[in-house]
Design a protein that fits this description.
Length: 159
């Protein structure tokens, strides 16, 4: 299948999944539909609206069961696939303005295409995002990075 058809399938799945996910007090982070090996996988990534709450195995199980039933009923995907419902993880990526606003004040890891101060990975506290400029505080030093210069921005995990 071509990319456009895959994108349309994910839009249809988002439309079907949204009321189910919302009924379990969660929101959709992303929907992926792709071929992995010889199988197609439909992956629905969910999270809680409140950043201090985490997805439980029960959340995933309840949504998966309800979504599977609805997908069987509507049958939007004609070929066989595996359904996965999961969390984007504790190191979830930040991709859009809403993500940066939601996680402002949290520690983030930023991968860079070109090193800053001899490092291609920066860790600091997210303090702002405007016009594709990410602002972080690294030990009292304010650093601004254009989003296009990043390979990733994700929540930092502190062990």
């Amino acid at each position: 299948m071509c990319g456009d058809k895959m994108a349309k399938i994910t839009d249809v799945i988002k439309e079907i999944a949204t009321p189910i996910v919302l009924s379990e007090n969660c929101v959709i982070f992303d929907v992926e539909y792709k071929k992995e090996g010889s199988d197609y996988v439909l992956r629905v990534l969910i999270e809680k609206e409140n950043i201090d709450e985490y997805i439980s195995i029960n959340d995933c199980e309840n949504i998966s069961r309800k979504l599977s039933d609805e997908l069987d009923r509507v049958d939007p995907i004609k070929n066989p696939y595996m359904l996965e419902v999961s969390s984007p993880g504790i190191d979830r990526p930040l991709r859009c303005e809403a993500d940066f606003e939601k996680y402002n004040g949290r520690d983030v890891d930023i991968g860079l295409y070109k090193a800053i101060n001899k490092s291609k990975i920066l860790t600091g506290t997210l303090t702002g995002y405007k016009d594709d400029i990410i602002t972080i505080d690294i030990d009292g030093e304010v650093v601004e990075i254009n989003k296009k210069d990043t390979s990733y921005v994700k929540l930092s995990i502190d062990f």
